[in-house]
Amino acid sequence: MKRVLTALVLLPFFIFALWASNPYYWIGWVVAGTLLGLREFYALAERVGCRPDRWLGYATALIVLFAFQQQNAFLIVGSLLLLLALTLALSLFTAERFETVL
Length: 102
Known about the structure:
This protein is mainly alpha-helical.
């Protein structure tokens, strides 16, 4: 019920962001939705015993969103490859068990 009420309250702002001439309103909604979704995902992952790297996930999401907003193929592919390499390198040097890392 809480989510339905939140959706009803935020629906006019969402529609405004869709119809506004400034695309940054819509980008703000996408960023907020992405960060809130990641927050909920990480909370669920921690409940089942996984230990996600929250800061890396949030940073990755923001970099990928920025790259797609710029609509530059080199920036998109380059940032994804760099973040993949960084994630794999960091996972090599963690002392945690592989089954609990997310």
